[in-house]
């Protein structure tokens, strides 16, 4: 025979399980995208209805890399390397810059090594690379310009150590000062191994 409390629970429609509406609300909360953490420039321009990829493309933060639009197998996504035409291939007689040619006699012994390096050409190529590295990429959107300005004004955060950390570091330094094999293994003078206590 059931006790009265159990009988009352069976009669009432109350249950400890969540209702359908509350389940739906819970699932909607799980599906909801988390708030964007970052600079205010991105937060203002971010469209919550778009995907991350679409937002990056709209803000001008995507590189120009061809990405397949449709879902496909990895076999079809493989990039075919361009073939070098026959007339563009280097001649057998002239070695490339930075490479050499080994001349052997009939017995296979090395007789001569010819290294063809043109210092003017190599120096010019290096200077071209330096100029390309130094040249700034033009910002295409206002968001990118604002982010670059924000990055230019950023300063490193100064680290502060607590008193407990300072005492721990002091104990560590005093303990390691008495171990000469540490300094001999590092080949560093003792006075140069000090932790900053600030």
Automatic annotation (TrEMBL):
Compositional bias (Basic residues): 1-14, 22-34
GO biological process entries: ribosomal large subunit biogenesis
Gene Ontology CC annotation, any one: nucleolus
InterPro entries: Ribosome_biogenesis_Nop16
Pfam families: Nop16
Annotated localization: Nucleus, Nucleolus
Keyword entries, A-Z: Nucleus
Domain of life from the UniProt record: Eukaryota
Positions of region (Disordered): 1-43
Family, as annotated: Belongs to the NOP16 family.
Its biological purpose: Involved in the biogenesis of the 60S ribosomal subunit.
Protein name per UniProt: Nucleolar protein 16
